[in-house]
Write a structure and sequence with these properties.
Elements: H1 2-106, H2 113-126, H3 150-157, E1 169-170, E2 176-178, E3 181-187, E4 197-205, E5 220-225, E6 229-232, E7 241-249, E8 261-264, E9 281-284, E10 287-290, H4 297-305, H5 314-317, E11 341-343, E12 352-359, E13 365-372, E14 387-393, E15 399-404, E16 407-410, E17 418-424, E18 429-434, E19 440-445, E20 452-459, E21 462-466, H6 473-481
Antiparallel strand pairs: 1-3, 2-3, 3-6, 4-5, 4-7, 7-8, 9-10, 10-21, 11-20, 12-17, 12-21, 13-14, 13-20, 14-15, 15-16, 17-18, 18-19
Helix pairs in contact: 1-2
């Protein structure tokens, strides 16, 4: 009995699922019927609108051409009527003169004949009939205003619905990913002069291959593309891949999206490890700001009693004992005393990596570089063999130095607003660049015995970190040019 109930329960569950599927299918069909009705009405209205617009154009052309004919007829009518009036007057005058001449000839009177004949001669000489042009000033031919609409009629008869554009195909071999810029190139199966524009969609993903049903990132849309390629600039590669698809559009309809293409967007991405930061560092996402009141109440009172003197600057703190007891909050005592340091949450143990940091040049002190995980909680960057950095000191006199293992080299270069950091782990290269101009500032040559991790320090200032960056092409070129340099050997 129990087995039968279990079997019936399974059948019931299966039927319920099937019923739900059929119900959803019925609902989808009903919705499709509603959509069909709405879409059919829409395209019918658009067709009527297009024909109305076409009729308007034809009516306007007809009106303009009729006006041209009327103007031509009026002008010629005026010319011919003027000539007709002048000719009629000349004919009337000539007939009167002819009658006078005949009467004079028929007269038997001899007295005054000579004078009469002279008067008639003078009148003939001045008669309008002899000054009148007998050539019409305007032609009665209007054939130059005739039209032939046979070609246009053929074109109108060829009117038909616009075809749906073909589906483009993204050419993976022609696509480029470089310098946080992606150029996507696509083609059509055959030329189509009806294409008005393209729509490109892209989204970030950590999965290679076709898009999945459930993705964490939405599609981003780029519209109005006129060419068969498009370049996305200024990207941040915080995922492993980006997926692209494109469709063609004419004036009326859009085609189907192309098969999605996934391009690898390798870059070094990390976050700041809040648990590693000094208590006086306020860490928010990728931004860090010095906060003098970040410790315990008793520590704050001690801080208030201090003066901003060189005795308490990071340049002197390596020789001083810790000033703070470890906080009771878990994970917030990684760095203490005057080691105002915060680390990243991702180690580098292979490859070539690059990131940038923008800092307040008015900071009393700032440093950026890499460190080993063994960096002591009281250690400052560059003060031991476990860290390498560029250090900005704004106390009394501004200076920029490269530091490692408590050795420093003053750098003879302008202080930039942001610094780019390049690491080639296998080659043991750590280089610092002006992030804007990509001018090389300093290079450490060493051999990393352990994985290293991005490290930062700030005192009385702030900075923000930019990750998800590929190694810039100019940095690659600079590394090749400087691969044989040994000018920094004293700091390795």
């Amino acid at each position: 009995m129990g087995d039968q109930k279990e079997s019936l329960r399974k059948i019931t569950h299966t039927l319920a699922l099937k019923n739900e599927e059929i119900s959803n299918f019925v609902c989808a069909l009903k919705q499709s019927l509603e959509n069909l009705e709405a879409n059919a009405n829409r395209v019918q209205e658009e067709l009527e609108s297009e024909f109305t617009s076409l009729y308007s154009v034809l009516d306007e052309m007809k009106e303009n051409m009729m006006t041209r004919i009327k103007q031509e007829r009026a002008g010629r009518t005026y010319e011919l009527q003027s000539q007709l009036s002048a000719g009629s007057k000349a004919l009337e005058s000539s007939e009167e003169l002819l009658e006078l001449a005949n009467q004079t000839l028929c007269s038997s009177e001899t007295d005054g004949f000579t004078q009469a004949a002279k008067d008639i001669k003078d009148s003939v000489t001045m008669a309008p009939a002899f000054r009148l042009s007998l050539k019409a000033k305007a032609s009665d031919n209007m054939s130059h205003l005739m039209v032939d609409f046979s070609q246009e009629r053929s074109m109108l008869q060829g009117l038909k619905f616009l075809p749906v554009p073909a589906t483009p195909e993204i050419q993976i071999s022609d696509c480029q990913v470089c310098d946080n810029t992606i150029t996507v190139v696509w083609t059509l199966p055959e030329p189509d002069n009806k294409i008005d524009h393209y729509i490109l969609e892209h989204r970030r993903t950590n999965h290679e291959g076709p898009p999945r049903i459930r993705e964490d990132y939405p599609w981003m849309v780029v519209e109005g593309i006129r060419e068969t390629e498009h370049t996305l600039r200024g990207l941040r590669f915080d995922t492993r891949y980006m997926t692209f698809r494109v469709k063609a559009c004419n004036k009326a309809v859009a085609g189907e999206f192309s098969e999605p293409v996934t391009l690898e967007t390798h870059a070094f991405s990390f976050k700041l490890d809040y648990s590693s930061s000094h208590q006086n560092l306020k860490v928010e996402d990728m931004n860090v700001e010095w906060d003098g009141s970040g410790g315990k109440p008793q520590d704050i009172r001690k801080e208030k009693n201090r003066t901003n003197s060189p005795m308490h600057s990071p340049a002197r703190s390596a020789l001083m004992s810790p000033k703070r007891a470890p906080t009771a909050r878990p994970g917030r005592d990684r760095f203490t005393a005057e080691s105002y340091t915060v680390l990243a949450d991702t180690m580098i143990d292979a490859g070539q990596q690059y990131w940038e940091v923008r800092f307040d040049k008015e900071s009393k002190a700032f440093a950026v570089g890499v460190a080993l995980r063994s960096l002591g909680r009281f250690d400052q960057l560059g003060k031991s063999g476990a860290s390498w950095c560029i250090h900005l000191n704004n106390w009394l006199q501004q200076s920029l130095t490269a530091k490692h293992n408590n050795k420093a080299r003053t750098l003879d270069c302008p202080i930039p607003n942001s610094i780019g950091v390049f690491v080639n782990y296998e080659e043991g290269v750590l280089s610092f660049y002006n992030a804007k101009t990509k001018q090389l500032m300093h290079t450490f040559k060493t051999k990393f015995q352990q994985p290293v991790i991005p490290a930062f320090m700030v005192w009385n200032g702030s900075f923000s970190v930019v990750t998800g960056l590929q190694v810039p092409s100019v940095v690659h070129s600079s590394q090749r040019r400087n691969s044989t340099s040994s000018s920094n050997a004293s700091l390795t």
